[in-house]
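user: Please review this fold.
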Amino acid sequence: MARSRTAPEYGTTLLPQPDWALFLDIDGTLIEHADHPEGVSIPTDLPDLLARLQLALDGAVALVSGRTIDWMDHRFAPTRLAASGQHGAEVRLAPDAPSVPIPLPKWRKPLEQALDEVLAAWPGVFVEHKPLALAVHFRAVPQFGEAIMDKVMEIGTGIDGGVEFLKGKCVIEVRQAGRNKGTAVEQLMNSALFTGRRPVFLGDDVTDEDGFRAVRAAGGLALAVGSRPTDQADFRLASPGEVRRWLTDLPNALERVNS
């Protein structure tokens, strides 16, 4: 199947290679979205699948998500992977390495208080309090999305000009500028587990575009999940269920390639 920068096709006959480094978004990619960030369902066999992928690729598998690394460790236990959390704000270069976060931004506390007060006017809006970022979810009231995002940007810019806004599917995240999934991939690719490998990034949202660009710049592949338009992906998978099925066959496919 040919590479395409404008219309990646559904399905893929792409054969995995032993030199791949796999970077996986979580929500909307490995698992289905939920109205509330803590309402997601983790398939019971997913931690074991991640462990098998880790073994098949000599450890070169990382979770790259807006979730915190602590959340990943708890929800995918006992499997522990290299990871980046909070859209690049924290990185763990190997499963047994420490998580390294950026310093707590000065705008964090005042913005947290302001958003909690103002957004209470919209029932169904949920502010997710991450250690290094704030995510405002409005999946329950998408009809108010534009007004909510405008208000979040107005408040955030008024508190600190150094904040950055990341719009996703029914969510807007406020974070420190200069960190994203692309910078996380670059950090991981310079570490011992991943260096010299071909990066492959799977993601479903606009927040994953930085990751797509980073792997393509390094000669890798970007796999989009779902129907969101993108001109960065090489291939497309229809849903998290299809992603899991494709990943389930990946270790066996690697054995066939090596045989």
